[in-house]
Write a structure and sequence with these properties.
Length: about 110
Amino acid sequence: MADLAATTVTSVGGLADLEGAAVAAAGGGDTAPVGPGYALVMFNGDASPHTATLTTPGSVHGHAIADGTLVVAAGDVGLIPLSDVFRGALDRAAITYDDVTSVTVLVLKLGA
């Protein structure tokens, strides 16, 4: 499991090479910072769709909150906000993948 660091994007020009800044998704999963302005970007270079699952550790009035999922089609890119609902015991989101073949990921922090 890798601890993903955030890349801060402060302008549209900062979006120029996002895929080049992405790292390989870890087979055992990753963790990422959460909060306002954070997002997970997943690039799928494989010929099959892939899913990232973000564990939601909380509950509301005793009812579990469903985990978040990001399904990315073959050859496509997807984005999911890393809101506080995904904050785990270590103040980070826990992310797993159905497969990591040709999957790269990047955490963005929008703003200054």
